[in-house]
Amino acid sequence: MPFLDFGFLDLIDILLVAFLLYQVYRLVKGTVAINIFIGVAAIYLLWKLVEALQMELLSEILGQFIGVGVLALVIVFQQEIRKFLLVLGSTNFSNGQKIFRQLNWFKTEEEDLHNFDAVYSAVENLSNTKTGAIIVMERKTQLGSFSETGTIINAVLSSQLLESIFFKNSTLHDGAVILSGNRIVAAGAILPVTEKTIPMRFGLRHRAAIGATEKSDAVVLVVSEETGDISIAVDEVFQNKVRLSELKAILHKHFAE
After folding, report:
1. What CA–CA distance (Å, rounded) separates 228 from 124?
2. Is 222 found in the same domain as 127?
3. Contact call for residues 222 and 202 (beta carbons, < 8 A)
């Protein structure tokens, strides 16, 4: 009798599990949920180890904890699970590539590019005309929860489109624009507002910019409606009165990380 009975189906089983785990990791990578995911995975491996060693009491305790941990994962990842089920229920399976793109499992080279020139040009014009704006630029953390609060645009990024969204008579000018790569995903989005104490001269847009960086790793640009000043928030750090000459370098720095 062979020591290890390993067949072709076992290999397929391992590869499929590895693929699914990798996609789950990509889904939560860069978010606060990644720590929960790693913690539950570590406890699961420990549970299997003590079970193999026949440590019954510890195995029973960890087994009960894993049951609660699965429920916690469902709560934490409810947005991602909802998105996955919606895609499965509404997509034609004959077009498999579309499913993967909707789940953001891979992006085309064009979608991955960042059109800093369009952002720079729009911010420059918005600043010169003192048109209030808040632009959220996605990095590693997916911003689906932010996008769902606004109007889905899903259009190629251009400075003209950005400026028209924030035009004072536009119905979407009060909310935030969500950018992902070279696309405008949504406009009129509502962002979480920080609870931190900031100077009174900063308004709701600035508080929302900081709040967005508390929930994600996004880079958020704000143009003041009062002064035309440009501000940037990233990693919970807020920088006011950013000069146009510095903006491109700052964006390239943060998106090169």
Report:
1. 9
2. yes
3. no
User: Between the CA of residue 14 and those of 8, 17, 18, 50, 169, what are the distances in Å?
Assistant: 10, 5, 6, 22, 56
Q: How many CB atoms lie within 10 A of CB 214?
A: 15
| Burial of residue 148, with CB atoms counted within 10 A of its CB: 0-12 exposed, 13-18 middle, 19 or more buried | middle
Q: Does residue 80 surpass a pLDDT of 80? A: no
The answer on 220 and 195 residing in a single domain is yes
User: Are 90 and 140 found together in one domain?
Assistant: no
Residues 125 and 242 in one domain: yes
The first and second tokens of residue 3, run together, are 């020591």
Note the pLDDT of residue 77: 66
CA dihedral 131, 155, 247, 114 (to 10 degrees): 180
How far, in Å, CA of 40 to CA of 166, rounded?
A: 43
What is the domain count for the chain?
2
Closest CA to 27 of 89, 91, 73, 94: 73
List of residues 6+ apart from 242 with CB closer than 8 A: 230, 231, 232, 250
Q: Which of 102, 121, 140 is the last residue before a domain boundary? A: 102
pLDDT per residue as tens digits for the range 29-77 = 655 566 667 777 788 888 888 888 888 888 888 877 777 766 776 776 6
CA distance 77 to 73: 6
* 155 and 240 share one domain: yes
